[in-house]
Amino acid sequence: MRLWHLFSLAFRYFFLHLRHYLFLFAALSFGFAVISTLTSVQEGMEQNLYSVSQAHYSGDIIMVGESNRRYKVIYNADEILSILENSSMEYEKTILRTQLNGGTLHYNGTALDMKYVFGVDWQEERDIFESMSYTSRTDDPYTPGSIMISSPVAEQLQARVGDLLTLEVRTLEGQVNTMSLVVSALVEDRSLFGYFKCYISRDDLNNLAQFPADAVSNIGLYLNSNQESGAVREELYGLLSSEMDVAPLFEDRKGLYRARWDKWQGTRLFLVPLSVYLSEVDLLLKAISMVSYCLYALMVLIITVSVAVTFRLVLHEREREIGTMRAIAFHQSEIVVQLMFETLILFIFSLGFGLVLSRFVVTLASFVDYSFIPSFEIFLENGKLTAVYTVSSFLANAGIVFLAVLPAVLFPVIMAAKRPLAGLLSGGSK
Amino acid sequence: MKKILIILFFVIPSFLMAEDYQKLLELADSLVNYPDHDFSGQYTITQNKPGQGQTVSVAAIFRRDSQDTYVIVIQEPSINKGQGYLKQGRTLWFYDPESKRFNSTSSTDRFQNSNARNSDFTQSTLAMDYDVISGEEVKLGSYDCWLLELEANNTEVTYPKMKIWISKDGLVRMTEDYSLSGQHLRSTYIPDYYNIGGTFVPKRLLFEDQLRGATINGKFQKERTLIDISSPSFKDLPNSVFSKSFLESVNR
To answer: Could you tell me which CATH number the domain at B2-250 has?
Structure first.
């Protein structure tokens, strides 16, 4: 009950002395806004990278058919899907893709080499394609005989939606083959993943590259959001390895290369977690994290120092009031508790305002064009910087700021409460 | 033998059967293959990209058909000087003097980013690699020719389908190269040959890309590569020429 009285008193005093707390409020709010922005943007960038990679590599775990053929190929996709369907294994969905590492797009005399040509089941992957951003597209771009290219590719070819392109590829056996395809959509993807790639229907690509009709290059497994890919991969290995040739599991890119050096007959299935492919940009992510952590630490230090200095001033201006409280029989500890309650109220308001400020900053930042930073597009969602605010990161940030602020407030408060009454009432500094 | 075959095709021009067409291909191959001699020559390769100007490369070619090998050394432009190709059976090596490394490349790849392919520099194996689908007698400019439609019987060749114009003297005058689906990809013109003691060497080869080019002043102009062959020689070459160390030593 006593605490409640102290809290309500602190609440009234907080608003009474709002003018004194204004700078402190501004410093704390700004500091928390910067920290929240850093962590949420970093999480947003990582999530965007993961989503882009997931769409590019076709899932969280990718089953790849490795052989000595020109392209990766799985001849028994139906058998694998049947094993998965008849098992108790949980996953969100599977998608099938044929993929060629190379091909040339021709339009009106201009030839542009593609890094990847994807053959996709339009209907199965419709949700992925619907979530993409397009410069322009037809009403129904998911028709046989159509091709989706990225906007930069279209710019280089000077092609528009509706134009007829010629796609030249090497078949599975190595022969040159061509197909005329109508541009059905221009994907607004200027990232490393999107630049030199195009999508056509899997039936068209199988026909063009002379794959058997039911063959694919890889089977992508999308997991539910709460699933951990390591455990699912082991379960998958257990399911498939008794039925077909499956490469031993590996955890990183070096492991993948080592597994590829092995010798085998026919096709061997590799179960590649997305993290292995993402290790290509791991260094970039680490560099971003390092910069982020340094800024974070610097901001916490600035908050601590500014709070310590400002709070001393606030206490100095309230010395007579503290003295009066002592004179009317407030115990020293009650004064400490009341002042700490005031600080807590200030802290909570600062967190709230800091969060709002952070959202505002992120919204402003999303309008900035980041194309001047090479390869930065892979961290953006449809070309925009996005932030992810999670409860866990909010609590972690709040906890860290609280721990940094606590000593900067608590010690001056204890010192002020302990000072001799005469000194406090006379307004002296000692 | 070559003369008998030539006479044979002169005498019975209109009634060739499928097996005769195949023999016609053998004749065409035999006229430009040199199993009994080494061959060397200088190739001046002029690449014309509409709207982008013209680039000229000079290369020395050394061929030994008896061992299915060739060596190409790039002499000009200076930026590519010393680059080289060595064909050893089915393997084609590309040597880069900058890195001093050999990398394997494909005979079906473009030669120095021109409209010629690496396979255009090796011996002719039309009769071995292609089956004749149809043939007819046609006129090509001033030449009376056999026009043969060919389909590859293996997957190693650069183009799976071809049309080929062979003049009555057994020389290939023009080819059209097609993709598996029948898309016309490239035309090759061979108007003149050197006749060196009954053995023939093209004087000029003109490659015209059907897909690459640019629209200039409203008219589509195709990319073209002209190869002028000079100083053809059938003198024997040292064995050391057809080796990696030769390409390395050229740059020292």
So the answer is: 2.50.20.10
CA distance B83 to B95: 5
Q: Residue B179: which of A108, A111, A168 has the nearest Cβ?
A: A168
CA distance A174 to chain B (A): 6
Distance from CA of B44 to the nearest CA of A (A): 25
From the centroid of its chain, how far is CA B133? 22
Distance in Å from the first CA to the final CA of chain B: 45
Residue labelled with tokens 């260094």: A283
Looking at residue A196, what DSSP letter applies?
T
**All structural domains of chain A with their residue ranges:** 2-53+281-426, 58-279
Helices vs strands, H then E, count in chain B: 4, 15
Q: Which residues of B touch A (CB under 8 A)?
A: 50, 108, 152, 155-160, 179-181, 183, 185, 211-215, 220-223
Q: Which of residues 36-55 of A touch B (CB under 8 A)?
A: none
Residue B152: phi and psi, rounded to 5, are -65, 140
The answer to whether A92 and A86 have CB atoms below 8 angstroms apart is: no
Q: Are A179 and B212 a contacting pair at CB < 8 A?
A: no
Kindly indicate whether the ipTM for this predicted assembly is greater than 0.85, answering yes or no. no
In terms of Cα–Cα distance, which of A85, A92, A113, A99 is closest to A57? A99
Chain centroid to CA A148 = 25
Within a 13 Å sphere around the CA of A375, how many CA atoms are in the beta-carbon half? Answer: 6
DSSP B13-66: -S---HHHHHHHHHHHHHHH--TTSEEEEEEEEEEEETTTEEEEEEEEEEEEGG
A188-213 pLDDT, tens digit each: 877 767 678 899 999 999 999 999 98
The whole-angstrom separation of Cα B127 and Cα A424 is 111
Taking CB atoms and an 8 Å limit, are B181 and A108 in contact across chains?
Answer: no
Q: Are B38 and B213 in contact (CB under 8 A)?
A: no
The full set of domain ranges for chain B reads 2-250
Q: Is A175 on the interface with B (CB under 8 A)?
A: yes
d(CA A186, CA A83): 37
Which residue has 């071995």 as its token pair? B128
pLDDT mean across residues, chain A = 87
**Predicted confidence (pLDDT) per residue in B94-137, tens digit:** 999 888 899 888 888 888 888 998 888 888 989 999 999 999 99
> B226, B233, B191: which is closest to B57 by C-alpha?
B226
Structural tokens at position A429? 């500094």
Note whether B155 contacts A208, CB cutoff 8 Å: no
CB of A210 less than 8 A from some CB of B? yes
